[in-house]
Amino acid sequence: MKSIVKKILIISWIVINSSCVYSQITPEEISVPNHAPLAPEVAALAKYKEVPVNMYTGVPNVSIPIYTVKTGNIELPISLSYHAGGHRVEEIATWVGLGWSLNAGGTIYRQTRQLPDDAPAGYIHTARTIVEWENTATYSGRRVLEQNAKRGHQDYEPDNFQFNFLDYKGSFYFNQNRSTQKPYGELIQFPISDIKIDYTLNPSGMFDYWKITTPDGTKYFFNSQCGDFLSSSFSYYGDTSGSLPIPTVGHLENSIPHNTSWRLSKIETNSGELIEFEYEAYSYTNNCIPSGESTSISNNSVSVNNSFTINLSSGTNYRLKKISFKNGYVEFVTQGERLDLSYDKALEEIFVYSKLEDTTTSTLVQRTKLIYDYFESPTSQFNSMCLGNYNPDEINKRLYLKEIEFYGNQLFSSDKIKYSFEYNTDVILPHRFSKSQDYWGYYNGKSNTTLIPTTFSSVFAGNLTKSLVNKGNREIDINYTQACILKRINYPEGGFTEFTYENNERNPTNIGFGIDMIYEPSLQRTEIVNSNGTMITDSQTGRRYFRTNFDVSDEISYDNYFTFTTSSTLCDNTQTDPVEPNINLPILGCDIVLHIKNRVLGQPNLTHPNGLPIGYNGKLFIQPGQYTLEIEIKSNNLDISNAYIEVVAQWKENKYPGKKFIGGLRIKEIKDYKSGYILNQTDPNAPAYELDENATITRKYVYQNNDNSPSGWVVGVPVFRSFSKSEGSLDNPPQLSEVISSSSSNNAISSDANNLGYFCVREVRQVEDKEIIKEESFTGDTATSSYPGSPIYHNWTSGRPTLQRLFIKKSPGDITDLSLDGLFNVIQSTQTNYYSVATLPSNYPKTTRGLNLHQSYFSESQADLNEKEIYDIISGTNLGVREQIETDYFYESGSVSTIQNVTKTLYHNLSENGTPIGTPHHFLPLKKINILNNGSETIETKYYYTHDLIGNSLFNQTVINQLNTNHQFNSPLLRETFLNGVKTATLATQFKDWGNNALGQKVLMPEIIQANKGSLSPLENRVRYINIDPLGAKPREMQQENGTSVVYIWGYAKSLPVAKIENISFSSIPSNLINAVQSASTETGLITALNALRNSSALVNAQISTYTYIPLVGVKTMTDPKGYTMTYHYDEFNRLNKVTDMEGNILSENEYHYRTQN
Predict the structure, then answer these.
(1) Which domain of life is it from (predicted)?
(2) Over the stretch 338-364, which tens digit does the pLDDT of each residue have?
């Protein structure tokens, strides 16, 4: 413990004593930037890397890097990621395998509500707005509008558009606040952010492309020509009586051709660099998807047959084919037709090529191959109307990723390094049309013939307050949820990671809307009393009894539903109740009766004092308690010696007491074997490698609040029940109906495990004999809406860390301060407080509206068709950090002390207490106040961005306005620092318009870096950019103020520095020498041009360093001003192999050993 404390003390001492320069100007900020390449280092290709865990969702972030495209100031990582939250039965594998996704670009996709927004009568075009609906006073007038909408003639609900590219994710809607400037309404982001979204409509009024501009001025284009397109969609319905499907009336909107997504087609940087994406199309016809089942319950009956709906759609999807950038391209090559999805193909290989502009020659840099296999479902009976549209063998298979192999830059080499993956095959998913699904769609192993969940209805209750609707078993079964999940990653160097999962679990107090239909995994409890048991005779009355005692625990499930069946060879009865056919009628005059008695004194019995005649099968709702099941022979003369009398009572109790499961998986434990295997040098008969147990790191995850209660919280659950009421007439009063559906009728909250978050999670890390606990607490949000089902959910406000604490195991004799279970002491904590989500002024555009047209309600009291539901969808901003409190704890000499640092952050439109004070120009921090060392000193830093400098005479207003026009404002141009209220430093960056780049855009880059210390004025020039090439947006000449110039010449299509020249101006270098360097198309030609530059008499007093490269790999040669050259050699996997001097002598050499390398 003492050694650990010493380490903590040292770290804290560094933090404390460096606070005096916190946010001051660093030497690097006021020095000429060094653009020369660094010497390459030993490669860490495919090295073990700890898999991080999203503590809020409990899902590990599994990602395998493939390659990173770099051009200008943009980096585009290409990787494969795996979602380890469980696989739904209906899930179709992507083109890289079940659960895996290729990350290489981005998409805007939409969830269509009623009509597509851009359809001729869609939400942004229709003149029949929600305001018109509100202004229509008569029911008959609204009825006409409603029917027109249901026939696809108008649209009352905005579509939900969602985007995901690089590090940006969010959604947006349109509203109907139209103006001359915005004829299609306002576009509202969720959350509102600093990105800018523009769009263009084609001549038909449909969305053609989107342009998203990020705060650094980079533009991302999403094109309809490479987005998924739905050309036709038809819904059919039928019932289980066997009738053929009949076209559904009122679904015309489904057949309107429209884009369901727009894929990223181009990236334009503010420096004029381009990354372009190419796709290939593939089509599908009559793709059949079961879209739901339902049963209807009215005042008079429960429907005998379930109705079902299927959807047949045709369209065109797109898959990525090529990414092109300045010095190369990446190709994505598919293999043959998939066995599990006949109209699609799997990604087989990824090739990375280097290729200079204006050349036709390309060089292979990296080849990656993906190896697949198929999970095959056990043979089972198909009961789907879609079966005729598929080969049964196709829907039984699921593509999965088996290996990722890297072959380096050799096209036909067999030498490779690889990742391999192992999955849980103890349980295999059923075919994707199987009805063996829990409430969230995960496999539960039940032999269901319908997906309509078993529940209770109060509309048709018979002689009880509610009646059982006995349909499918949608309970979670923890033995099946982990079907086909990833359980192990094997790394190239021999290490591996093993995953252990468990089911998601919520807090018992989380009893939000719809939870009453979600039943926990249950066990059937049965209690039997019969005439084979001990007979008890009453000494006074002579009556005979058979009894057994039973207890009903608090874990009783299914709304406390309790049934009993009775039988006797003396009083056998087959007559049934005409109202409730499942119940037998008793025989009158039978002298054998049943009693269900309460053993708790003063509590009522459950049956009439005279008992229930044998022959009566009944049901009731029982409370937890202690009971007696009793058979009474009321007649002393009745001979029962040869009779058999039996009563069977049944009810269900939770299989896992106290547990409240939610669909999907969370991580329970991760074991990392960093070295994996060590060379066996002792036993010649043993394997060459053996497991190195000492290299194991175990991480366990505990999802509990500080009171040890489960910390999971669900913001929405699937809602399977809805109510409607017919319009009725004078002769027929309105009739209430209840509909139980197989899929959620809650539009806003999909049946997705991601709707669950954990407010408090502990990671227990075991490294050899050391144990450390990291605890994190998070923000959460609940779904709020004008009625259940409106699409309102502030998911961006959830999962933000509020308290992070680090604990370490105590040593004997250590005192306890903030301890965990009395065994661990807290050594560090970080508390984060946020501004409210509602941090926008009331007049800021942040709301859209929708009108629910469907005759569905979520409680009986709402079922009045005279009123349709209008809902508001209200946006807000990301939760800005208001205050962060960092505390370090020190345990020494029997006492504990703390050091606390506080950081407060203020934003553009907020007062210090979070009150909106104006319309925000941006959502970047304006001020940070750091209160350090328990309040002994305060450092305040103010930031000024382009919007904040409008009218500031220190800055060129033409350039400021152009930066704002370019949406290029995410870096502060002015920074002021104060210590205890006294200004200590100012740093300013003056930008300049350097001309137009190759795309015709203005290149706005720094010209002068200014600074001062204290409150001195004016600012002093520290760094000056003298010459910048607008076509490459690269600096050609810079100098420290009043110092010597540093010149860079950029080769390889003006992308890499090939010469650094000091003590000369750019204009003094002969242009023919510069042109020769920049136009060289071969390495030999480049070296010749660089030597000519070095030997020129015009540069005799200059210090010249030169560089050559292997494009997309690294620097090849570095020649210093004295002419000494070092050469860097790479192997076929682009790893640094050796370094040699000018004479070819080896200065250093590297060897790489991988267990998976051939």
Answers:
(1) Bacteria
(2) 999 989 999 999 999 998 776 778 999
Give, in order, the Cα–Cα distances in Å from 473 to each of 248, 460, 660: 28, 21, 17
> CA–CA separation, 763 vs 58, rounded Å?
11
690 vs 697: CA distance, rounded Å = 17
Could you give the strand order of the β-sheet that contains 53-54, starting from the edge strand earlier in sequence? 53-54, 59-71, 74-83, 100-103
Query: CA-CA distance, 656 to 506, in Å (whole number)?
Result: 13
> How far apart are alpha carbons 429 and 386 in whole angstroms?
19
Structural domain boundaries of the chain?
Answer: 74-518+660-794+837-874, 522-654
Q: Kindly provide the residue ranges of all beta strands, DSSP E only, lying in 306-357, ordered along the sequence.
A: 307-325, 328-337, 345-354
* 904-908-914-918 Cα dihedral, nearest 10 degrees: 160
Give the Cα separation of 621 and 1005 in Å (integer).
75
What's the CA gap between 855 and 735, in Å, rounded? 13
The C-alpha atoms of residue 1061 and residue 1046 are separated, in whole angstroms, by 6
- Tell the burial category of 408 from Cβ atoms under 10 Å away from its Cβ (0-12, 13-18, 19+): buried
Task: Write out the DSSP string of 542-564.
Answer: --EEEEEEEEE-TTB-GGGEEEE
- Among candidate residues 711, 901, 900, 706, the one with its CA nearest the CA of residue 818: 706
pLDDT tens-digit readout, 505-564: 999 887 766 777 889 999 999 999 999 999 999 988 889 999 999 999 999 999 999 999
Burial of residue 148 (CB within 10 Å: 0-12, 13-18, 19+) is middle
CB 416 within 8 A of CB 405: yes
Dist. CA 719–CA 788, nearest whole Å: 9
The answer to whether domain 522-654 has CATH 2.40.50 is no
pTM of the predicted model as reported, rounded to 2 decimal places = 0.89
- Helix orientation angle between 1083-1095 and 1071-1079, rounded to the nearest 10 degrees: 160
**Which of 92, 490, 49, 448 is closest to 289 using CA atoms?**
92
Token reading at 532 = 């084979």
In whole angstroms, what is the distance from residue 673 CA to residue 886 CA?
33
User: Assign residue 365 a region: left if phi > 0, alpha if psi is -120 to 50, beta otherwise?
Assistant: alpha
Q: CB under 8 Å, gap of 24 or more: what pairs does 989-993 form?
A: 990/955, 990/956, 991/956, 991/959, 991/963, 992/956, 992/959, 992/1025, 993/958, 993/959, 993/962
